Structure formats: structure tokens, C-alpha cells
Amino acid sequence: MNAAVLATSRHWGDDCRQGESLAGHTTFRVGGRADLFHAPRTIEGLIGAIELCRGLRLRHVVVGGGSNVLFSDRGFRGVVISTTAIRGVLDHPHSFEVCAGEPLGGLVDRAEKQGVRSLSFLAGIPGTVGGAVAMNAGIRDRSIGDMVRSALVLTPDGLVREVSSKECRFGYRGSGIRQDGLIVLTATLGVDGPAYDRDGVIERKRATQPLSFPSAGCVFKNPDGWSAGELIDRSGLKGMMIGKAQVSEKHANFIVNLGGASSAEICKLIDIVRQKVYNTFHVGLDLEIEVIDG
Ligand code: EPU
Prior knowledge:
Shape: globular
Low-confidence stretches: none
Largest sheet: 5 strands, antiparallel
Mean pLDDT: 96
Distance between the termini: 14 Å
Bound molecules: uridine-diphosphate-2(N-acetylglucosaminyl) butyric acid
Strand order of the largest sheet: 6-7-12-10-11
């Protein structure tokens, strides 16, 4: 551990841990140890942590619920900053202002308590509001970007800015927020839109997705006009295993950790799936999940 990391850990005190296993902070349950893991409790703390790392030129990465990331077996040389301790939802007359680390489930609960069911399509999606906004998470016909009115973000030059929904440039499982390296601090979501039945949404997921195993949800984006799951399935890959990583038998766009899978096994399976689908259909698959180098 280098001196800057050590000094930083002293500065953050109880909210940070040295040598933290990242497996416990990802839904894949995979990943080695981070030099330092820090979960600030406030937005000011988050901004301060990022500024400190930038100032010291300390390698760092900001993560939410770890539901769309794959860390290396080597862990992460530097600081992993988690937003998960920064929670809270503020009700406004026709919107909710939500802190980055609020779990999507917490937002859905809060909205339903107010009689708002237009956000219930987000039920059953793991992860935090900040991560979901950055990657425009959602279901087939609706994404969180459809609901975002504005977001408060930290720019790469350390400025706090409010960006409009248009400036967020939401696209299919992506956004300008991600492309421009902005960090979501809070997001304001509107309430207009079709109502969803939360139990029905979760029930459909249970019926079609392997929710009883650790995974990062869909591994690949759906290529234009195709379904990645169907392409992988029709390439005969369902059930394929490398070590303890398996192409799910239930939904082929999920790779599941059968217990003790390594990051290297998952990466190998990803390569095989891409190659086989390309050889069979001449379609390239792009990752939806983010692979973070050690
Ligand atoms: N299919 C297969 N075999 C499979 C899986 C799917 O043939 O193993 C077929 C299905 O029968 C269906 C089609 O592929 O005809 C599409 O499947 P599904 O309805 O399950 O939807 P999807 O496109 O695979 C998308 C999102 C999911 C989201 C569901 C439900 C992506 C990459 N995936 O899946 O999001 O939960 O719709 O709305 O956009 C995620 O992003 O992590 C995720 C899980």
C-alpha cells in the first residue's frame, strides 16, 4: 500500500477499510481486495473523497450497488468509493429527488406509498439510483431515463452542476453521464407515465430470470433488432460452464456464479459467448456490464 493510500485512509477514519474484499460489494459476489474501500455518508463526503483522490492522483473508481460491475480477481489497486451509504428520497409535489446511493427498491417503495406507480417498472432491478441513471437501467420498454427530469452531477473538473434530462443524453443502457465521466450525486424523477404493477413486474422476472444465483443481470446489450439472450441460446450455449461460472439455463444473457466463481472464469465465458455468437450469427455482442481492471 502506498503512502498516499495510507494517508487517505487515516483521513476518512471509520467510513473506510483497507484490503476490503470486493466480492461482498458486487451482486456477482466476485472480486479480489481493494487497497481502500470508502463509503462516504453524505454528498459532501463523496465530493470530498473524489477531490482528494484526484488531488493526490490516486487511482479510484466510484461504484453504486455493484450490480453491473465485474471486478478482477486481483481486486483494485487504489480506492473504491461506494455511494451506498448516501441514501434519501425527498418528495416534491410532482417529483422525487433521490440521493445517488438510494436502492431502486427504496425509491419504488417510497413512490408506491405516495400512490405513484409509474416508477414501479424499476421493481426488482438491483442497484442504486445513481448507477441506474448513469447506465439508463430499465426493462424492455421503459428506462429510468424516461423519468429523469434533471440530475446533480460532479464533473471531471470538480464542478457540481445540474444537468437537464436532455443533457443526460439517455440511450439504450447508456447515457452522456457515463460517456462524459460525470458522477451522479442526486437525480430528480418525475411521476408521469404508465402505471406498473410491482408484483407483476417482479413475478415476470422470477419466471424468466435466474434470480436465485448471484449475477450482474444481463451481461450483454441487445444488439439492434436482436435479443442477446436468444442469440446466445440459439448458439447452444445455455448451461455452458467454466469453473463455477455458468451461462444460465434459465436466461442465456445471464452468467451466474454457482458458488466460488472467479472473475477470470466469468471473463473466459464472456469471450467464448462472444466468439460463438459471432461465428454463428455474425453479430457482435457489446457488454452491458462494466469490467474493472485490477
Ligand atoms: N430468449 C431466449 N432464450 C433466452 C432468453 C431469452 O430465446 O435464454 C428470448 C425470449 O424468449 C424473448 C427474447 O429472447 O423472445 C427476449 O427475452 P426477454 O423478454 O427475457 O428480454 P431481454 O431482451 O433478454 C431485457 C433486458 C432485461 C430486462 C428484460 C425484461 C437487456 C439486455 N435486457 O431482456 O434487463 O429485465 O428485458 O424487461 O436490455 C438487464 O439489463 O440487466 C436486464 C436483465
